[in-house]
Design brief:
By secondary structure, the chain is an alpha+beta fold. The protein has a single domain, classed as START domain (Alpha-D-Glucose-1,6-Bisphosphate, Chain A, domain 4, 2-Layer Sandwich). Helices cover about 20% and strands about 35% of the residues. It has a seven-stranded antiparallel sheet with strand order 1-7-6-5-4-3-2, with helices on one face. The longest helix has 18 residues. The radius of gyration is 18 Å and the shape is globular. It starts with a strand and ends in a 34-residue tail after the last helix.
C-alpha cells in the first residue's frame, strides 16, 4: 500500500475543525480529486474520485474510529475496487495557535505501482495532492473560501495545475511605474 502523511496548522478551535471535517460531504470543497462523498448512514459513505487520464473511481467506506475533536479514521469496505484507509488526528497547536491537523493515508493505487507512476505523470502524485488539499482546507477554515488567482499554480480552473505563458497586460490595464 502507498503511504502518505501530511499535517497543517489551522487557526481555528479544534472542535470546529473536527466538525467541519467530520461532515464528509464538505471534503470535495477543498479536495480537488474528490468529486463527491455521499453519506449512506452514520458510519458509511460512498466516494467518487478523479483518477488519472480523466477516469473516475468509486468505493464505499466506513468510519472505524470516531473520537470527536480528537481522531477520525476510516477504511474502504471489503470488496471495494480501491483498498483505502486513513486517519485524521486533531491536536491543539502550541501557544494557542489553533489546531494541528495530521492526515495519514494508505491505499493501493489502481494498477499498483504502474498506476502510481502514471498518476505522477499526470501531476496527481498523492503526497502533493494531500499537501495541496490541506492548504485549501486551511484557507476554507480560516477565511471561508479557497483563494485562487491567475498567479497560483492551480490557476482559476479545475484539476491539476494549468499553467500558461505569461502575457503582457492588454490595453485596458494601466501599468504604473
Amino acid at each position: 500500500m502507498l503511504h502518505v502523511s501530511r499535517s497543517v496548522t489551522v487557526r481555528r478551535p479544534r472542535d470546529e475543525v473536527y466538525q467541519f471535517w467530520r461532515r464528509l460531504e464538505n471534503l470535495p470543497g477543498f479536495m480537488r480529486h474528490v468529486r463527491a462523498v455521499t453519506i449512506t448512514n452514520d458510519r458509511r459513505s460512498h466516494w467518487i474520485v478523479n483518477a488519472p487520464a480523466g477516469q473516475k473511481l468509486e468505493w464505499d467506506a466506513e468510519i472505524v474510529d470516531d473520537r470527536p475533536g480528537v481522531r477520525l479514521s476510516w477504511r474502504s469496505l471489503e470488496g471495494s475496487d480501491v483498498r483505502h484507509e486513513g486517519v485524521v488526528v486533531f491536536r491543539d497547536a502550541p501557544a494557542d495557535r489553533g489546531t494541528e491537523v495530521e492526515v495519514d493515508l494508505r491505499y493501493d493505487a489502481p494498477a499498483g505501482t504502474v498506476g502510481a507512476a502514471i498518476a505522477k505523470l499526470f501531476g496527481e502524485e498523492p503526497s502533493q495532492q494531500i499537501r495541496d488539499d490541506l492548504r485549501r482546507f486551511k484557507q476554507v477554515m480560516e477565511i471561508g473560501e479557497v483563494v485562487l488567482s491567475e498567479g497560483s499554480l492551480e490557476g482559476t480552473g479545475e484539476g491539476p495545475a494549468r499553467e500558461r505563458p505569461a502575457q503582457a497586460p492588454g490595453p485596458e490595464v494601466e501599468v504604473r511605474r
